[in-house]
Amino acid sequence: xxxxxxxxxxxxxxxxxxxxxxxxxxxxxxxxxxxxxxxxxxxxxxxxxxxxxxxxxxxxxxxxxxxxxxxxxxxxxxxxxxxxxxxxxxxxxxxxxxxxxxxxxxxxxxxxxxxxxxxxxxxxxxxxxxxxxxxxxxxxxxxxxxxxxxxxxxxxxxxxxxxxxxxxxxxxxxxxxxxxxxxxxxxxxxxxxxxxxxxxxxxxxxxxxxxxxxxxxxxxxxxxxxxxxxxxxxxxxxxxxxxxxxxxxxxxxxxxxxxxxxxxxxxxxxxxxxxxxxxxxxxxxxxxxxxxxxxxxxxxxxxxxxxxxxxxxxxxxxxxxxxxxxxxxxxxxxxxxxxxxxxxxxxxxxxxxxxxxxxxxxxxxxxxxxxxxxxxxxxxxxxxxxxxxxxxxxxxxxxxxxxxxxxxx
Length: 409
Ligand code: HEM
What we know:
- The chain is mainly alpha-helical.
- It has 14 helices and 2 strands, in the order ααβαααααααβααααα.
- It has helices spanning 19-26, 29-37, 52-71, 81-90, 95-122, 131-153, 158-172, 178-186, 193-224, 243-268, 298-306, 310-330, 342-363, 370-395, and strands at 41-43, 240-242.
- A two-stranded antiparallel ribbon has the order 1-2.
- α4 (81-90) packs across α5 and α5 crosses α10 (243-268).
C-alpha cells in the first residue's frame, strides 16, 4: 500500500535536526518568517516614504505597551478619571514618561498615517492588484480615528468633555436616527461615567483590533509585493533585493530618525501635543472660550463648519473619508505613479493643499476670510476625487514609462 505524501513541503528550516526543525515541520513559522521577512524580494528603488509602514508598526506597538501601563492606574469614572491621570503624572514612577510617550505617540501616529496615505495616493499604490491593501488601510484609518477620539476623552479634562459634547451633538444632528444614536453613545441624558466607561472599552478594543487588521494588511502586501515610485512592476531579479539585510537596515534608519523627532517633541515641546485647556478638570457648567479638536481632526472640523447645515457638515466630514474607499475604482488610468501623470500630480497637490486649508479653517472656526476659503477647499477636495480622477484618463497626456526600475548603468 502506497503512503500518502505529506500535504505541505517542509520549508528551508525543516531540513536539519533539532528543536527548530521539529517545530518547523509541524508549524512552519520559522520557514514562513524566513520567506516573508528575510528572503522576500523588494524593489530596489523604494524611497524614504516606504519607511512609514514600519514606523507605524513600531508606533502601534509603543502605543499598546504604554497604554497597557496607563490602564493599570487609570479609573474610568467622571469623578476619578482626571485625578487618576494626575496620579500617573505625579506619583507613579516614570508615569510622566509613559503618558508622554502615549500622547506624543498618538500625534505622531496620525502624522505618520497621513504621510503613509498620501504616499499611496501619489504613487497609485491603491490600483489593481493592491485594492485590498488600500481598503484594509482605510479600515485602520477609521479605527485609529475612533481610538484617538476615545483616548482624548479619557482624561476628562475641559477639552475632553467639550470635544465629546460637540461630537455627540453632531451624531444627534443626523435626521431621524440621530437622537437614538446619541443616546446609545452617551448611555444617558448627560456625559458622565457611563459614557466614559463606554469610551474606555472602545479605546482598548479598537487599539487591539487594529493589530488584527495590520496582520491582514501586511499579508495582502506580501501577496502582491510593494509598489514603487515608478509604479511599474519589477520584471527581473536585477530589479529586486532581499528584505534582509537591505530593508531591515533601511527601516531601522528610518525608525531611528523618526525616534529622534519623537523624543525631541516629547522632551522639548510637550505642549505641542497637549492642549493647555485639558489640564483643567471637566466642568459641564463652563464652556471653554475655544473648543478645538486635536490637530489631526482639524480638517474634518473645518469641513463641519464649511457647510451651512449641521447635518450637511457631518455628511461632508464623513464623505471626505468615504470617498477614499472608492479611489481604486474612481481612478481608471492605466498608469500608477504621479511621476508620469502631470494632471493627476497637480491634482494630488491641490487636494493636499485643500486638506491643509480645511485644517486652518477648522482652527479659525470658518471666520473672516476662512468663511470663503473653507467652502472653496471643500469643493476642490471633493472635485479631485469625484471629477478629476474619473476624467484624468481622457484629458491627460502621460509621460513615457521607463523600461525598468533599475538605475541605468
Ligand atoms: C495602523 C496603520 C497602518 C500600518 C501599521 C501599516 C503598515 C504598513 C506596512 C508595514 C506596509 C509596508 C511598508 C510600506 O510600504 O510603507 C504598508 C504598505 C501599504 N499601506 Fe499601510 N499601514 C497602515 C495604514 C494604512 C492606511 C491608512 C492606508 C491607506 C488607506 C495604507 C495603505 C497601504 C498601501 C497601499 C501599502 C502598499 C504601498 C506600496 O507598496 O506602495 N496603510 N502598510
